[in-house]
Amino acid sequence: MAEILSLIGTSIPYLTNTLHQIASFPDLIRYLFKKSNKETDSNTPIVILLPHKPPATSTSQLEKLSFSDKTLLLTYFFNHLNLLILDENFDKAKTEATVAEASRLLKNRISRVGNWTGTTHFNCGTDDCLYDTQSKIAGVIPTMSYVLNVNASRSVQTTEQLIHFKDLIVKEIDFFELLENSSPERLSELCFAVGHWSFPAHELSNDDLVYCVYLMITYAVQHLQHEDPEDKSFHLLTANELLGFVFIVRDTYRNGNPFHNFRHAVDVLQACFHFVIRLGSLPPFKQFITDPEVEFEARSDGATELVASKDRLDNNIAHLNPTQTLALLIAALGHDVGHPGTTNDFMIKYNAPTALLFNDRSVLESYHSSVFINKVLAVCWPSLLAKKSDTKTELTVRNLIISSILATDMGEHNEYVNRLKSFKTNNEILNHDNTVKLISALLIKCADISNVTRPLRVSSQWAMVLSREFAEVETLKSLINHEDDAASIIDLTQDLTYDHVPDNLQEILTLQPKLQNGQIFFINLFAENLFNNIAELLPQLQYTCDIILHNKNFWLERAKH
User: Fold this and answer.
1) Which residues have a Cβ under 8 Å from the Cβ of 493 and sit 6 or more positions away?
2) How far apart are alpha carbons 131 and 151 in whole angstroms?
3) How does DSSP assign 230-254, residue by residue?
4) For 144, how many CA atoms within 13 A lie in the half-sphere containing its CB?
5) For residue 300, what are the CA distances in angstroms to 32, 138, 273, 448?
6) Which of 43, 182, 21 is nearest to 497 (CA)?
7) pLDDT score, position 129
8) Pair 446, 547: CB distance under 8 Å
9) Distance of CA 69 to the CA centre of its chain
10) pLDDT tens sequence across 463-504
């Protein structure tokens, strides 16, 4: 069954799970953007019924688009929602077959992950139903390889069309009105949330997180504009453009992933944001809390944006200029777009098409950077990609974003730690561009695994959702290894759901009594060495080491009992 969104006054009774009559095409776009405040995957196809000819009397430029243009717009901006777009003359039998096949594939969370990655066929009517780009079902449930190919091979003309559509959307859709709670009090509270190292990501809705991103990127752009007002080739996004950009980035993440979702992206961005403030690359702001161990408590002061402070933090010499700082923050925001909720090891072991394409090297990170650059930024902010990172260099923001995202591959972790040690002791002499790339890479790496450096309650929340995602991967492995007997592993007719992450440490420990095992392993193997070395190079980040040590001692003590 499917959700039906009809703009032609017609429903499809034999397919209808939920029916919404939509008054106009702009209203349809608003509805689809708002859907991603829900923190689940789309587990049913959405059938959109559009009139083949646009209404002659409408004043909306979006409404006046042709059927083919509307189809292109919808499939570009909302393909994560599993859309089947039809006009009045749809073929009943073909539509019913497509919806039935899509419904079967989408029903279960583990099945969805297998289908996205291209590692399973056990629930598919034909082996190539998802992986053949000419297949109708491939467009309804876009796999990773489908998304990669469509966006990497898109023509210049199509890109220009999509930029035009984006401009129309920004002109006609007020993204601030799409936020679930845009009251001044709530927006002010979010300013203070951004200012805390104990960033309460799991107590914030997806819409709250969108506004948090808006706050941080706006602050960085304002600083860039102040430092470099003469760059006329760089397009400064309006407030509505920037918020729309964040909505679009959010829609590129898989909301149902327990860990690698939009919330994680915002958390990594917020960690990078704190790093660059403490390192002097951005000035501190009024809502910034210098004590990293203070627990967040909701408060507001009426300010709905971050207010720059006149006071600078002590002994700060900027390590990145304003353009490089913005590049790092944007890379953090997009560093996991399209993440399927698996690991590189999984993708390689089970011959995922993307692993074959990227020769088993940084598979997911290569995918994230390609999709973020070619699908999102090339349409939403092309002038940012072309911007030089410095007046004396050929290194562009695009180059920095790619190198930063690739650095988040944990398979390359030891190599970066060794480079850090060499750089720290002056054994490795780098030119200016490579120094900027290394500093950016190290900061995003630290931010990516900063969960263990957050105060214990927040850190344990992240540990809990990560354990959920690892458990899903193990279930998927079992399904692949026993495809002939999938029903004995999991009921594919039922979806997998989770309770909301508790905000109380003791409740988390009750639900996950062995949480300390993974935390001790990760801190010992990866985090402690990286953060101790980065703090020697950048002593302003010493606080991360102090919190890691406190958390580690807690987990070690718990492991004794």
Assistant:
1) 107, 108
2) 15
3) T-TTSPPPPHHHHHHHHHHHHHHS-
4) 33
5) 31, 47, 20, 28
6) 43
7) 58
8) no
9) 27
10) 999 999 999 999 999 999 987 787 788 888 899 999 999 999
Quote the tokens at residue 450: 């900063």
Task: List phi, psi (to 5°) of 226.
Answer: -65, -40
Q: Hey, what amino acid is at 558?
A: R
Q: What is the pLDDT of residues 29-56, one digit of tens each?
A: 999 999 999 989 999 999 999 999 999 8
Q: What are phi and psi of 2, to 5 degrees?
A: -140, 160
**Torsion angle, CA of 143/146/147/150, rounded to 10 degrees?**
-170
| Cβ atoms of residues 452 and 446 within 8 Å | no
Of the CA atoms within 13 Å of residue 321, those in its CB half-sphere come to: 19
Smallest CA-to-CA distance from 130 within 304, 411, 352, 405 is with 352
The pair of three-digit structure tokens given for residue 165, joined into one six-digit string: 């559509």
Closest CA to 271 of 295, 461, 263: 263
Helices assigned H by DSSP within 451-504 = 456-481
The residue behind tokens 């001790």 is: 520
Residue with token string 């019924």? 49
d(CA 411, CA 393): 30
Q: Tokens at residue 107, please?
A: 């029903």
